[in-house]
Design a protein that fits this description.
single chain; 340 residues; alpha/beta; 38% helix; 20% strand
């Protein structure tokens, strides 16, 4: 198994409750920056953040990504995922290019139609329809804008047919190839490959065929690559999968996570029968052996490790360091930075 890039994925929760080290929105934002810096120091390759609206979670990604970009030097910085139903695609293109320039070209933006939100038809409160097709139209406009395509006529007087078209500014070279589509099914993975976007697949698939989660996800990845090749895209696509990996190295770890499910789960989400991937919880050598057998991890180039962000920066940096040092080498997942 070739070395993988290792990133973390934070949901950015905050709650003023017992045991929470992340009690306010300010805590969640500042700790996200600190966690990215700490993760970079221990050899993690990527810092990724979920985006949710109307919830006590991270919602507006670009100020956070820009802050991390100027605080760090090497780590990839991204989202998993931005719900395009809520976005103005041209304003988003400006924000994304500015954050990418501040980071020196390290943004890796996961976008999608999005997952269910707490608000009923919440994007309509933002002034946009709650519509998957509209999310794809916005995606096309956003991608055209960051690629430098002119999108608005100049105000120079005269006949409208004589007006030159203007592109959004600033532009950040290379950003168009670092856009990922968050895919929850085989069909949407095929669509992402046809469109020339990288594939981001989480611990949830909005379908179930009765096979283990990793096998279904590996099939999704294979179909994505087939569609990519058939479309004739020239550059090599990226594929990421997310996993919950918790090494048990202390009594505190065992108390918190010793009873977590270690098998796939099947349930209904948003009215669809769905399969949820298992958590990898146990001694580091046990987890390494299990990860070696995960066929979707073998098929991906990037693994995003979900972190319990409300346990604070110090706990999560230690968790990530344990994975890099004690799990990844044995599992064949050595982070590229630590292997250099």
């Amino acid at each position: 198994m070739a070395n993988k890039k290792l990133g973390f994925l934070s949901f950015g929760h905050w709650q003023d409750g017992h045991g929470s080290q992340t009690r306010t929105a300010a805590d969640a934002l500042r700790q996200s920056v600190e966690l990215a810096a700490g993760a970079e120091e221990v050899g993690i390759d990527g810092a990724f953040f979920r985006v949710h609206h109307f919830a006590r979670q991270l919602a507006s990604p670009f100020p956070l990504l820009a802050a991390i970009g100027v605080r760090t030097n090497r780590i990839e910085i991204g989202t998993g995922v931005i719900d395009m139903r809520y976005e103005n695609p041209l304003y988003m293109a400006e924000d994304a290019a500015a954050a990418d320039l501040l980071a020196g070209g390290r943004l890796a933006l996961g976008i999608s139609r999005g997952s269910p939100e707490p608000a009923w038809r919440g994007s309509e409160a933002f002034g946009y329809p709650d519509d998957a097709d509209d999310a794809r139209r916005k995606t096309a406009l956003f991608r055209a804008a960051i690629a430098g395509k002119p999108v608005a006529p100049a105000d120079v007087g005269g006949r409208s047919s004589d007006r030159p078209l203007l592109a959004i500014q600033p532009q950040s070279p290379g950003l168009p190839e670092r856009i990922w589509w968050g895919s929850g099914s085989r069909d949407t993975a095929i669509w992402a490959g046809q469109q020339g976007m990288n594939l981001m697949s989480s611990t949830l698939l909005l379908e179930d065929t009765g096979v283990p989660f990793d096998e279904l996800q590996a099939e999704q990845i294979a179909l994505f690559r087939e569609a990519w090749n058939a479309a004739g895209w020239e550059h090599e696509p990226r594929v990421s999968v997310s996993r919950s990996v918790i090494p048990i190295t202390s009594d505190f770890d065992r108390q918190l996570f010793g009873r977590h499910s270690q098998s796939d789960q099947v349930g209904v989400l948003d009215g669809v029968l769905s399969r949820f991937g298992k958590s990898y919880v146990g001694e580091p050598d046990q987890i390494a052996a299990e990860l070696r057998d995960d066929v979707a991890i073998q098929a991906a180039d990037t693994v995003l490790l979900t972190v319990p962000n409300q346990l604070g920066v110090d706990y999560n940096v230690r968790l990530l360091e344990t994975i890099v040092r004690d799990v990844a080498p044995e599992a064949g997942l050595v982070a590229s930075a630590s292997a250099a």
